[in-house]
From TrEMBL:
InterPro entries: L-rhamnose_isomerase, Xyl_isomerase-like_sf, Xyl_isomerase-like_TIM-brl. SUPFAM superfamilies: Xylose isomerase-like (SSF51658). GO terms for molecular function: isomerase activity; metal ion binding. Residues 100-285 form the Xylose isomerase-like TIM barrel domain. It comes from the Bacteria. Keywords: Isomerase, Manganese, Metal-binding. This is Sugar isomerase. It comes from Panacibacter microcysteis.
């Protein structure tokens, strides 16, 4: 479903006066407004191909209708998000949920919408129909070499799909672990997993990155073989320079200081990217910034400080991806809110008075240090984010236009009320 340009222009004309008033106010407050707007224009967040349908839990799934029936319609949905906010210019595919039958056609279709292919995701946490060997007791950790080889072959196949589409990174999330004490020899599980990852690493094209995603628990509930940032860092360090850790915000034990983890991984040059979402309890995969917006700000504060300290390019040197699932919201509205939260938080982190913060830290002036951070967090930067969208040809208020243009109703009319998208 195309969103006609004239509809975006008409929407912006109606909202322009209010926008300009708000922009003038914040631009008067913020000295580096122009630089921030330009950084926002360049900043793109990859949308997960597995989060365009209504997710669910083991207790139930309540479809909202009009869900994409195939990869082509998923790319069209991301094209729609990108037309609205001009910040969703990439898709992250999950294999085999989204196998591109004809990579040339899929690549051409994505290009039409201005969509790039971000990290590819492998899947050795489910058994596929007709699969020879089961991953019930793990994949790369498995005691049976043949199961490990099956997982290695799958990851190498995923790299090939990615090469054909123009992706240049592979995310490996392993659900491997154990549910009961005694079930697993932790040392052998680590070594089997490392040897397996080394074979996948050896198949990486020279310009590719491998992201090792860690997770504390689920689906295993006693141990996870890539269970925290330290274990992921250990694997990535032993694998080589093309291997990095991937931080999924929902994959930590309660009250973990994620911003400190991010600062140290960045310092070590081993932070590869993010799966943004939010959570209150476990891996809830909720809308970014919906539960702990200040934690998200503190993470972006460390990112900006750490990336500038290393002279890194904010837009291209790390993998910026969302990983969410939607139980009660329209998937596209949820993703629009998540991208907006990321852009707002990035803008606030760019606002932090770094000189004043460093001086306060040098003086152990704890109060001023907090004031510097909260001054930025309490600044309403939404007009800067909207201005970046306007300059990129997007909508000033994406969610409002998505609703006023009645897009979900048109998708249901086009696809039906009972369509089910592959994914979570
Ligand atoms: C695991 C995870 C991983 C994906 C999956 C869909 O919880 O975060 O990144 O493969 O979700
Ligand atoms: Mn994830």
């Amino acid at each position: 479903m195309e969103l006609e340009k004239y509809k975006i222009e008409a929407h912006n004309d109606d909202a322009l006066q209010t926008h300009n008033r708000r922009l003038a106010f914040v631009a008067a407050e913020v000295e580096n407004a122009e630089a921030i707007i330009q950084k926002l224009v360049d900043f793109q967040v990859a949308i997960p191909s597995w989060a365009l349908g209504t997710g669910g839990t083991r207790f139930g799934r309540f479809s909202g209708g009009g869900e994409p029936r195939n990869l082509e319609e998923k790319i069209a949905d991301i094209g729609l998000l990108h037309a609205l906010n001009k910040s969703s210019g990439a898709i992250s595919l999950h294999i085999p949920w989204d196998i591109p039958e004809n990579t040339t056609n899929i690549k051409a279709l994505a290009a039409q919408y201005g969509i790039q292919f971000d990290a590819m995701n492998s899947n050795t946490f489910q058994d596929q129909p007709g699969q020879e060997l089961s991953y019930k007791f793990g994949s790369m950790q498995h005691v049976d070499k043949a199961v490990r080889q099956q997982a290695i072959d799958h990851n190498i196949e995923v790299i090939k799909y990615g090469q054909a589409l123009g992706s240049n990174s592979l995310t490996v999330w392993l659900s491997d672990g154990s549910c009961f004490p005694g079930q697993l020899n932790f040392r052998k599980a680590f070594q089997n997993t490392l040897e397996s990852l080394q074979q996948v690493y050896a198949a990486l094209p020279a310009d590719w990155k491998m992201f090792v995603e860690y997770k504390a628990f689920e689906p295993n509930f006693y141990s996870t073989t890539v269970g925290d940032w330290g274990q992921s860092y250990l694997y990535a360090s032993k694998l080589g320079d093309q291997a990095y850790t991937l931080v999924d915000l929902g994959h930590h034990l309660p009250n973990a200081n994620i911003e400190q983890i991010v600062a140290l991984l960045l310092m070590e040059g081993k932070l590869g990217g993010f799966h943004f979402n939010d959570s209150k309890y476990g891996d809830d995969d909720l809308t970014v910034g919906s539960i702990k917006p200040y934690q998200l700000f503190l993470i972006f504060n460390e990112l900006v400080e750490g990336m500038d300290a290393k002279g890194m390019n904010h837009a291209t040197d790390l993998g910026w991806m969302i990983d969410a699932s939607h139980n009660v919201k329209d998937p596209l509205e949820d993703l629009l809110q998540s991208v907006e939260a990321i852009m707002i938080t990035y803008a606030q982190a760019l606002l932090v008075d770094r000189k004043k913060l460093a001086a306060a830290q040098a003086d152990n002036d704890v109060v001023t240090a907090q004031e510097v951070l909260q001054q930025a967090f309490r600044t309403d930067v939404r007009a800067l984010v909207a201005e970046a969208r306007l300059r990129s040809g997007g909508a000033l208020q994406p969610l409002a236009l998505y609703r006023s243009a009645d897009i979900r109703a048109q998708l249901i009319k086009q696809r039906g009320a009972k369509t089910v998208a592959t994914g979570l």
